[in-house]
Write a structure and sequence with these properties.
Blueprint lengths: L1 H9 L1 H11 L11 H15 L10 H14 L13 H6 L13
Helix pairs in contact: 1-3
């Protein structure tokens, strides 16, 4: 793991990204392949020592990523929050038209 993170750190493209972030420039989506996302995130987290927001489409994806991130980062500092607790969804009654339904 450490060997791969060192290789990422020494990539010219990674150094350019790091410089842009440190300069406060807005960075559009990187379009990284799924396998590269967590190692890049772990490298940025280590180099910047700043909180990083990782957005997922579903709560189960967030939990999976949190587990996998533990492999790359010694102690991930991540706050997971759902807008509405799952058990509370059932108490709300009928879903409004266009609402997203999460299935667990």
């Amino acid at each position: 793991m450490k060997l791969l993170l060192k290789k990422i750190h020494h990539l010219e493209q990674y150094q350019q990204l790091l410089t842009q972030i440190q300069a406060g420039k807005t960075i559009p989506g990187l379009g990284l392949p799924r396998a590269a996302r967590l190692p890049i995130l772990a490298s940025l987290h280590a180099d910047l020592n700043l909180p990083i927001l990782l957005i997922t489409d579903r709560a189960d994806h967030a939990l999976s990523l949190f587990d996998e991130l533990g492999f790359w980062v010694k102690s991930p500092r991540i706050y997971l929050q759902s807008r509405i607790h799952f058990s509370m969804k059932r108490l709300r009654g009928e879903w409004q038209r266009g609402a997203t339904v999460c299935r667990y």
